[in-house]
Write a structure and sequence with these properties.
With about 350 residues, the protein is mostly helical. The protein has 14 helices and 7 strands. The structure holds iron/sulfur cluster. The site of iron/sulfur cluster (SF4) has 11 residues, from loops.
Amino acid sequence: MRFLPILSESEQPSSYFDIWMATLPMSPIEHGATCERCAMIPYDAEPRPETTTFSFRSDVKCCTYMPSLPNFLAGGVIMEQRSLHAKEVLASRIDFGSGVTPLYVERTALFAHVYDAARSAFGRSASLRCPYFDDNGRCGIWAHRDSTCFTWFCKHGRGKLGWEYWDAVRTYFQHVEQSLAIHAALSLGVSPSTIGKSMQYHRTASGERVVSEIVECERASLGPLPSSYNEDWSLYFADCARFIRSQSTIELFKVLGSKGQALRLVVEERAKALTEGSWPSRMKLGKFSIKRLKTGFYQLISFSENDPVAVSSDMWDYLSLLDDTTLDDLIRNAPSSTREQLTPQVIRTLMDYGILVAVG
Ligand code: SF4
């Protein structure tokens, strides 16, 4: 499990999605994503060869993101006793109004627009700091963070394979979020047409939302709540959380429907790929970019700049000339100094990170 920002493991409250992780076939622990001592911040004067050349700011780490909280998670924050900061942020977010719908407290359109336009600023800009990140460098809504925060890691023990696994979990959990948010809203009496408008809003690109957000608050067009709430959105979100907590896992699984089953099967497939240990009969170089480090090492970046593989210059000289090969030939044809480095563990890592890929 990801013990990310920011509390020590023993202090971490369990998250809503821990319950759903327990229903999946595996829950790999990403030991490399160390938030107490962020793996993306260079602490040493001399960076290690495997250290990425791309680093994060220590005052934001990976929290240069703003989640869209589904109604039942927003309600969890409201009912939570421990995080005053997060409660205040959420209260002012609800008060602001724009993007507050019966299904989600959406991230603001302005934030989403800047975030989408400046992806390379991730981890490096205080302007993108998550409002729920408190002054002590802690996530104020840890137990109620969204599917993206729950499944994102800067580093993966099994490289691209791990990244693909968590990507599938994220897609599945995004479906869980939306399905349960709709289930709660319908059960509390929100009209189907209002839910339809909220879903449409959730899908609308930030660029189309941003003008109406900065010119006028548009929540009025996404309401109303059932009259019993008297437009008390905080009470409504808290009731969503209470309602979802009252449902059994079996009832919630039914709400996910056949799409939920299909997305879960994708997660199971990716989990299987993580446990398979066989070698392909032939392999070749995959697709990746290369950076030469001052140390003489080379970084090979296949799926994320946060998570490169570093190899010695000898190793790169050999790999760069590689053609379609068998495992035996890969080892046999290497110069002796490189052959010593080509242990089964190293070859497995090169495959996990997509530097070597199976032919066919
Ligand atoms: S919700 Fe928490 S984990 Fe997610 S970006 Fe904000 S502070 Fe970080």
